[in-house]
């Protein structure tokens, strides 16, 4: 199963008064991880937008496990958990440098036409991208992945 990894250096501006990463920054990091996964698989989200399509978040869930702090690094692991005709669910783990899980998350996305926001199957936008997502989602399902580092 393919899992993308992206290292994030935690900046002071991402922390709260206690020196702990502010919870909303995880959303930004998930997007960075998703973008890296797409790039690693050979595609670009910017290319999709240039064709007149967007992929908005339709659902997101984050479970915080262990605080991250300024001056350390986070590793964002991202994979395609499931991929259907109109929806793709990404899985994420945000890890401390030592591999301790800081957060687990999923985000669900649809592909829509930019001008109308009407859903469209990824297979109609980019058949190769759709086929790759089906392949990696099938591998994830075979591996029983919802928690790749457990």
UniProtKB/TrEMBL annotation:
<protein>
    <submittedName>
        <fullName>Acyl-CoA thioesterase</fullName>
        <ecNumber>3.1.2.-</ecNumber>
    </submittedName>
</protein>
<keyword id="KW-0378">Hydrolase</keyword>
<dbReference type="InterPro" id="IPR029069">
    <property type="entry name" value="HotDog_dom_sf"/>
</dbReference>
<dbReference type="GO" id="GO:0016787">
    <property type="term" value="F:hydrolase activity"/>
</dbReference>
<dbReference type="InterPro" id="IPR050563">
    <property type="entry name" value="4-hydroxybenzoyl-CoA_TE"/>
</dbReference>
<dbReference type="Pfam" id="PF13279">
    <property type="entry name" value="4HBT_2"/>
</dbReference>
<comment type="similarity">
    <text>Belongs to the 4-hydroxybenzoyl-CoA thioesterase family.</text>
</comment>
<dbReference type="InterPro" id="IPR006684">
    <property type="entry name" value="YbgC/YbaW"/>
</dbReference>
């Amino acid at each position: 199963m393919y899992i993308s990894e992206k290292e994030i250096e935690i900046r002071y501006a991402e922390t709260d008064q206690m020196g702990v990463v502010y919870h909303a920054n995880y959303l930004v990091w998930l997007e960075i991880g998703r973008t890296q996964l797409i790039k690693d698989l050979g595609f670009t989200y910017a290319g999709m937008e240039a064709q007149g399509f967007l992929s908005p978040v339709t659902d997101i869930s984050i479970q915080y496990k262990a605080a991250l702090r300024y001056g350390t690094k986070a590793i964002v692991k991202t994979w395609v958990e499931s991929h259907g005709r109109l929806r793709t669910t990404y899985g994420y783990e945000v890890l401390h440098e030592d591999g301790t899980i800081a957060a687990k998350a999923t985000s669900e996305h649809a592909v829509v036409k930019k001008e109308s926001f009407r859903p469209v199957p990824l297979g109609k936008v980019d058949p190769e991208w759709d086929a790759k997502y089906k392949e990696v989602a099938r591998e994830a399902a075979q591996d029983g992945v919802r928690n790749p580092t457990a």
